[in-house]
Amino acid sequence: MPKRIVFFFFGFVILASLVYYGFNRWKDSREKVDLWALVPDNAALVVETSNHQALMEHLRETELWQSFSVLPVANRFQENMTYLDSVAPGNQRLDRFLNEKRILTSLHVEAKLDVSFVFYVPVNSVGEHRFLRTLTENINKSEIFEQSSRSYQGHLLTDITNTRNGSSFTYFTYHNNIILSASPVLVEEIVRRITRGKPTSVAAQFSNVDYLNQPEVYANVFVNYRVLPELLGLFLEEEVMPHVRYLATLCQNGMLELKLEQNKLFLNGFSSPEKLNKSLHSNMQPQKPQLLGVKAYLPNRTAMMLHFGLQEIARLRQPQEGNRSVFAATVDSLARSFSREAALVYLESNSISQSPEKIAFAHTASPAQTQRLLNSLAKQLADARKEKPYSEKYGNHTIHLLDVPELPEQLLGRVFKGFEQSYVVQVNDYLLASEEVATLHHLIDDIAEENVWGKSVAQKAFLEETLQEANFSLYLNTVNAWYVLNRYTSEEERENLLQNATLIKRFAQVSLQFSIVEGRYYTSLVIRRPDQGKGSGQDGFEEEESITFGNRLDTRPFPVQNAVDRSRELVVQDSANVLLNISALGKRGWTDSLGTSLRSDIKQIEYGPDKKLRYLFITSNRIHAINNQGQPLDNFPFNLPDTLDLQHLAVFDYEKDGNYRLLVDDKLGNLYMYNLRGAGVQGWQPRRMDYRLAAEPQHLRVGGRDVILVALENGYIYALNRNGDTYPGFPINLKVPLTSGVVAKVGANLRRTEVTAVTRYGNVVTMNLQGTVLRSEQLMRPSKRALFDLVPESSNGRSYVIVRQEQGKVAVLDQDLKEVFEKNYVTSAPKIVQFFRFGGDNIVYAITETGPRKTYLYDSGGRLIGNRSLENSHPVTIYYNEIANDYTLYFTSGNQLKKFRFSVGE
Q: ∠652-656-660 over CA atoms, to 5°?
């Protein structure tokens, strides 16, 4: 009996132990786990979704998915999902399993080398457990996958490898959840996090925030700003990372809602300020967000802008280093004169090798006081160096040179670092600073011509989607910034950038903004495709107008502006040597019978007390100037000796004060310069060059000096001053013929100004204005018949392409000497090549065969527009219409002037 009792007792203990163990395992499996608590603290981003099926369906309806789905990373992910789906049991595929459950995806930077993801997926029912068990069994049986298991700190980890594509992932289960990643290191880190006890959620500050309960929200997105620089550091060059790291100290972390529309992606929510000492937030101490008033002065060429809206702009200077210079007090006073806004703007670049131009903007509370402080600072600098202060007039503005290293940084803080010297100018309530005076010249021109954000239809539509008031904003136009992005993207990631160019450029408008609200930053990220006009998506020609004249038209339609309202007009010459004016409405205007053919294009100047536009041009031995009625101006035409055979006309306005100089050259290489009264300028009657010019002379203003560049067909390049004297170091002999002009990038002085020429045989030579050859590179020359020209853009000549022609082949190369495209044509005769650039990717190439009378138009990628040629044998004129996002083309055909409209499909 006692033995039986002992036997039953031990049996009861064992049974109770088993029941208790089973109960605890069941209880553990039923325990609700906060998946956010499993996410490692080093996650840069965490995305939480609740309806996988709805998200995918909505994504497929948007242009964003259409663009993203073609990327290599998306293709690889879809390929792996397809493989897994192929071994999934029955009809309960992966999409159905993933649907209608809260799934987390965290993004991590591993060893500062790569990005890895972790997926956290709940298993909600017995049926789902059965599905996973069968899926695991099928994977183990499949020839596509190899599976192995191992124990790590009490948890069973399973490693699966796809034998077809080499990809692999590791997973384990925890309280009815699957944690899966391609990185076994991250999976092991999560296991260690679990075994250390009850972990705290990385998003604990936002435990009461759940945007998924709101309509049309597809995800909660957690952002760890402290880790964000590590993520961006994988893609960016170290050169820009100090700025990135500092800007990231505005916030610690944030929780944002994700919304999707057809052509937009929105992330909105709140971010917690970073309160560590010397962080951007601690330095700024923002109180009230500010409006974007500077938009009235931002050029449409803007690639990226950092904008600060603060009541006390001087707080950006914190922390300040000691400044013991004699002008330190003036700099402090100048910094305190700024209010509400400061911005750092990077402009569109044309080459990866070219540093982008940048401009610092600061709003001034009292322009008069700021001007007095500028004058005082300029005088103090001049007195300290015992030299005369430098300033120059440009139109109605006075530009000062303040040769203080890193002056914008001293005035506006460390974000504004990178100015060796500063040219400054006041435009209404804003002070503008740039390293190069030419940058300010171009900006003042853009403002005067209203090529600014405040007048741009596309930009105004974008700004309406963004916060109207903010403390910090980053604006990016990916198309304008394309070469800037390439320049500052790390070498390892540049290939990926190029592969994803279509998607990146399509969603071109990006804004990230932070606006202080009750101690937190309301945060808004907008990624948007610009509004497309009615012509978007079409890729063909639509004839809008054809005007027939009595005689054959012998020139291109020259683009001009109406003398009164500045509307677009045209001037063309017919076979009877009559100039004909056509208004913007297609009506015939003034005429002028010249009796001989034009030798130049039609130039325009503001002249006379009414400041109306006048027309300037040359014939074989005359310089003509007429008004908007076709009548000659006083003293015109200038009658030069009959023996002259003029080639080019250049018009200079040294001081931008209307005191014009007219420079012409003849076929012998003699230069003649006149003022508008017809008086010859000393030193130019003539200035003999001994060889014919390869192109029209160019005028540059460099550090207060006037430089006239003259390129000769024999390969000599001259730099002349106002008196026709040669600058030291010139001429430079390229020792090879030239048949095209040069392009200059104006710097702060002669040493920093670069001039680029392309010889007939493909040698690209860059020199400075001290006469030093900086670079020389020989382009590939397939044969001795291959000849090269430099073709500047038609509007302002600031950028250029290189054209190679060889026996009917025409190749176009960009400024980085990379081939854009090559085309074959019927004849071997030289082609007329034109390059039109209207900002960003709004580029058109026109190539004309004069023999067959055919013109071909190509887009930025070298695709033939309209799939056909046009009957024409002269250069064409093209305008870009921003509102409609299409182009207007004018060309002559026989005795007809034709107007076509066309768009460029993607």
A: 40
Give the model's pLDDT for residue 29. Answer: 45
Residue 25, pLDDT > 50, answer: no
Number of other CB atoms surrounding residue 16 within 10 Å: 10
- Residue 663, CA distances (Å) to 94, 465, 696 in order: 75, 50, 9
- Spatial distance between the Cα atoms of 188 and 207, rounded to a whole number of angstroms: 26
8 Å CB contact between 531 and 490: no
As a whole number of angstroms, the distance between CA 747 and CA 140 comes to 67
| 96 CB-side CA count, 13 A | 11
- Residue 531: name the closest of 501, 506, 504 by CA: 506
What is each CA distance from 702 to 346, 358, 626, in whole angstroms?
21, 18, 31
Which residues lie below 8 Å from residue 502, measured CB to CB, with a gap of 6+?
A: 67, 70, 906
Percentage of the residues of the chain whose pLDDT score is greater than 70: 90
Span between the terminal Cα atoms of the chain, in Å: 93
φ/ψ of 529, rounded to 5, equals -85, 130
Question: 437, 431, 468: which is closest to 336 by C-alpha?
Answer: 431
Within 627-689, strands assigned E span: 638-639, 646-652, 661-666, 670-675, 687-688
Mean pLDDT, residues 251-278? 91
Predicted confidence at residue 12, as pLDDT, reads: 38
Tokens encoding 906:
């993607």
Residue of 361, 309, 369 whose CA lies nearest to 334: 369
DSSP symbol at 148: E
Length of the chain: 906
Whether the bond into 356 is cis, omega within 30 of 0? no
Reply yes or no on whether the pLDDT at 31 is more than 70. Answer: no
Other Cβ atoms closer than 10 A to 901:
18
Residue 606: how many CB atoms within 10 A of its CB? 13
Does pLDDT of 469 surpass 60?
yes
Farthest CA pair distance, the chain? 144
Closest to 212 measured CA to CA, from 31, 34, 47, 53: 47
Task: Determine the average pLDDT of the residues in 673-689.
Answer: 93
Structure tokens at 539: 């890729």
* Residue 120 CB-half CA count within 13 A: 24
Q: Supply the pTM of this predicted model.
A: 0.86
Contact, 838 vs 904, CB < 8 A?
no
Sorted by where each begins, the domain ranges of the chain are 1-31, 33-54+72-202, 282-481+499-522
Cα torsion through 417, 420, 426, 432, rounded to 10 = -40
Sort 271 into a burial class: Cβ within 10 Å, 0-12 / 13-18 / 19+: buried
Q: By CB neighbour count within 10 A (0-12 exposed, 13-18 middle, 19+ buried), where does 630 fall?
A: middle
**33-54+72-202 CATH, one of 3.90.1520, 3.30.450, 3.10.450, 3.40.1000:** 3.40.1000
β partners of residue 568: 561
Helix (H) or strand (E) holding 411, with range, is helix 407-412
* Residues 6+ away with beta carbon under 8 Å from 357: 346, 347, 349, 434, 435, 436, 439
Q: Which amino acid is at 333?
A: S
pLDDT more than 90, % of the chain: 57
Residue 853 · residue 844 · CB < 8 Å: no
Cβ(164)–Cβ(173) under 8 Å?
A: no
Find the helix or strand (DSSP H, E) in which 140 lies.
helix 126-141
Please answer whether residues 452 and 463 qualify as being in contact, where contact means their C-beta atoms are separated by less than 8 angstroms: no
Angle at 872 between CA 868 and CA 878, to 5 degrees: 80
Amino acid in position 786? A
Q: What is the pLDDT of residues 131-160, one digit of tens each?
A: 778 777 777 777 788 888 999 998 999 998
Cα→Cα distances 299→191, 294, 419, 466, 780, Å: 53, 10, 20, 19, 37
DSSP 549: -
